Amino acid sequence: GSQDRTLKLWDVSSGRELRTMLGDSGWRSVYHSGACVTFTPDGKSALSASDDQTVKLWDVATGRLVRTFTGHGWLVTHVVASPDGRTALSSSLDKTLRLWDLATGSSIATFTGSEGGVNSAILSPDGRTAYSAANDGCMSVWDVASGREIYTFSNLGGDSRSLNITPDGRFILYGAENNGKEDELKLLDLGRASAYREFQPKLQAAQKALQADPNDASALAVLGEWWAFRGIDDWAVDCLQKARAGGFAVPPLLLGRCDWNLNRFADAKREFADALAASHDPQEQFYLGLCIK
Fold it and tell me: What is the dihedral of CA 164, 123, 102, 150, to 10 degrees?
């Protein structure tokens, strides 16, 4: 795709141009720095993002423009087809993502909540989760079915430009321009986002239980585990200690890690010693022994 308002199809083995797909006079096929042309999974259609605020669907065999998708309020920076080929996801500098029905051209959902213009968007291999990178240095994780933002990777730095995901969906490669410094690539572990989503039902149940009984020990333990997961260790320690005082068997390793992060090394070593006494895992025993020393 090019700013000369064309898409070109090439034979990879020979380098020969097979076909040119031409847009109208008011259209440019590619946003100035986005990777905004993609095939649908069956290879029969192509999608392009445009700086006229549209997404376009093309017939690869004929080069014919099949459909134009309208609804974004600013430059469309990226577009990707879903794994089943039924929908497409686009991102825009209007701070939104849009999910489109490829058969009808209708907008199925709009994902809002990004603080910056969105430069890139991709889908997980199963199509259930979307990831977007914005020019505020954050990457958002979205549930496609609901359009809800479920996690944010904050302070990644730079003005994000591109994302790519491994075939197994475990890692994302994040690329950003860095304000005149060296550009950056970061490899992000998606395990935290999955854990965040899986934790939500348990957290909601704990919050409901604490409304009925603020001293519910099991609910306090869940809340403490949640704060520990979020890295808010002082709140985690407070909840976990209250849960233990209420009779809940708080894992000493969990509490010890929080104490350690807070530089409460004496408390942490006591918790690690209790964890070591209960452990049957040689590798864990070795690790705990090092911590205690």
Answer: -140
DSSP for residue 4: T
Long-range contacts of 217-223 (CB under 8 A, 24+ apart): 217/242, 217/243, 217/244, 217/245, 217/246, 217/247, 217/248, 218/243, 218/248, 220/246, 220/248, 221/248, 221/250
In the numeric block, which tokens belong to residue 54? Answer: 């549209």
Residues 128 and 173: beta-carbon distance below 8 Å: no
Question: Would you say the pTM of this structure is higher than 0.70?
Answer: no
**Dihedral of the CA atoms 138, 181, 35, 189 (nearest 10)?**
-40
pLDDT in tens, 235-268: 999 999 999 999 999 999 999 999 998 999 999 9
Given a contact cutoff of 8 angstroms between Cβ atoms, the answer to whether 108 and 94 are in contact is no
